[in-house]
Amino acid sequence: MTQLQDARAGRITPEMELAAKVEGCSPGELRARIAAGTVVLPCNRNRKTDALCAVGEGMRIKVNANLGSSMDHAEVADELVKLRAAEEAGADTAMDLSTGGDIDAIRRRIIAESKVTLGTVPIYYAAVRAVREKNTIMNMTAEDMLEAVRVHCEDGIDFITVHCGVTREVLRSLEQCDRVCGIVSRGGTFLAEWMRYHRQENPLYERYDEVLDIAREHDATLSLGDGLRPGALADAFDRPQVHELNVLAELADRARKAGVQVMIEGPGHVPLNQIQAQVQMEKELCKGAPFYVLGPLVTDVAPGYDHINAAIGGAVAGMAGADFLCYVTPTEHLSLPTPVDVREGVIVARIAAHAADIARGLPGAADWDRTFSEYREARDWQKMLSECLDPKRAGEFREHIKAHSEDTCSMCGDFCVFKVREKAKR
Amino acid sequence: MTQLQDARAGRITPEMELAAKVEGCSPGELRARIAAGTVVLPCNRNRKTDALCAVGEGMRIKVNANLGSSMDHAEVADELVKLRAAEEAGADTAMDLSTGGDIDAIRRRIIAESKVTLGTVPIYYAAVRAVREKNTIMNMTAEDMLEAVRVHCEDGIDFITVHCGVTREVLRSLEQCDRVCGIVSRGGTFLAEWMRYHRQENPLYERYDEVLDIAREHDATLSLGDGLRPGALADAFDRPQVHELNVLAELADRARKAGVQVMIEGPGHVPLNQIQAQVQMEKELCKGAPFYVLGPLVTDVAPGYDHINAAIGGAVAGMAGADFLCYVTPTEHLSLPTPVDVREGVIVARIAAHAADIARGLPGAADWDRTFSEYREARDWQKMLSECLDPKRAGEFREHIKAHSEDTCSMCGDFCVFKVREKAKR
Questions:
Q1: Of A59, A61, B167, B309, which sits with the fewest C-beta atoms within 10 Å of its C-beta?
Q2: pTM greater than 0.95 (yes/no)
Q3: Which residue among A182, A189, A331 places its CB closest to the CB of B397?
Q4: Complex prediction ipTM
Q5: pLDDT by residue (tens digit) across A282-291?
Q6: In which residue ranges of chain A is CATH 3.20.20.540 found?
């Protein structure tokens, strides 16, 4: 039985108990939401772990950190350092997107060592193997793609991105459009080029029932990838994007009917004024399926600052109902991230998620802010520096220019408003 | 004649000509908006400069950088370094908020050397002088406050923040409320404590006609300060805040009648879901007066990241109609900023402003993004690294992990979507 099947049967599993406790909601409420398909609880039954994080309606917005090697840098040990950096910075989940070096070893070490929920994109695995063993991605077979899904599910991956919505029909919509950046999803690109070359339908669509069978067997949650996500503001909310989402909505229905947990992936590069509508569209079309967004980035021109760019879009998406933010690091579009970049990416995404939790009225979300502001009013620097989002950074920045007095900072000195007021009261 | 009086008389001044050219709008359109009071063109007639930047409806959203010494760090030369950092990073305006060292010398050197529109908060000057010459802020006189306004206007400051809305009635509203952080505006605090001590009305309110006379004489633009801005999410949108804004709306009317250009300052710490309403409230109450916001910060708990926090709030405020973003630096709430912090603050605020310009459909705003995305599609790294928002940062980050090939980055290597597609086409 999957968590979804259990939930529908009215059973509260030990995993639901634990996740509800972490979330601060009742197990019954969590069960009902999982049964309705508005929350997923990714927990592959092959994985022995307490890492549990419920994603969806009424839950705290979660943050994912992408890890993974590339052909330019592939060291198992370095991926584990990034994993630890992500976990220590407060990531709720991590995805291993490795495409370089011993990708099996990296994935299995991450599974063994991680304390958080884990995801992957199996088509990367199939593509890397095809290039290595058969010279080119084009020589990948449909069976190779399904095999990749199987291997990752058997290894214990909690959620897998599958680009099942990149259909021939959707690609026809794309051809009729004049996109600036075409397809920017890697999985989407591999599949689209394979489909064009072989003049065949997407195997992950055509053989979706087999994908569902594998996922159900291990209770891996499907994250339906948006292969057609816009990679430029100019491409946002166009016909291929909406067409694919419509296909994903149908596939989400089929997943639920098959007892498989499912969420939907979202853009991408989106002008700020379109974000709310994008989220509402997903929520309506996909009957409240949890929405997992990458960014969105609200401008194309800010490489070096795309973590901030994504925080702007992610906060607004979260306020509008997105449930799960994939972090973006400062090196997005420029380089594989270092552990320092990973840390920065997670913290900044957490700011966006927290701001959105407050905005959508998540019970208790604003309590941290109220308590923290009480420390500020009291000039309790010890508490401010220990209870803020990133004590390490705050402590460093307080030293940029030292204050002459322990109870103020060097910005205002004795003109500190709280100090002036306290003095006037005496 | 002020720019407002000229505009009302149907005259297009040389300053309007130049500002319209910079803005890319017609001088006639700019004149009409200035006449209507929905745009200000701060340009003190005592200042010889080409620095011209129109702020308001239909204009590009502008970014201000706060400079200034404190008692903990007061070097004229260092303020000039920060000024240059702000200008080079693309700030449209700068404010000198000095409260330490030779504040006259700092202000005058900044006026002499700046290439951008300049603002100050004259009450700081009055407060610092009172502490130095009369032992305490409480010994400041009403005449001292007006004298500060006069000195700054005579020196050539283009816009001045005056907290004329901190009235006794507004302070009564405050007393009835249970704020977590009371008043966090420095000017507001100085005035409120002075008013309580002397049991007198705010001289800047009581003698507002004199303030208007001075401003009109030099064509200094008034920036009506929000002394009661919320300094904690818990305090946002409460009675004192709205009460003060209502007073500012009346004062804005009176300024326009007196031929004085006027804009309104806004919060502060505001939950993300309140920002749109806050902006609409200002625009309606104040008859479209340009709105100058400090942040808003969307969480209280992120010291060390308040520039990002402010970018989230600023982008949403800009989309809702705010016209002018005051940057926040990474050291906000922790320390006076260094030149590096100033640079970071300006760039991040520019990202928010640009995203909001695109969102509200400013003509031409999205062109940069489209062109940039064309470089990305073409893998034109030279152009990407020279035409992005911050070429210096992008170049550095591209080196975090070096790519093996010139035409990709180390994130995807040969799995670069653009490269895979190009290869497949051949």
A1: B167
A2: yes
A3: A331
A4: 0.97
A5: 999 999 999 9
A6: 47-359
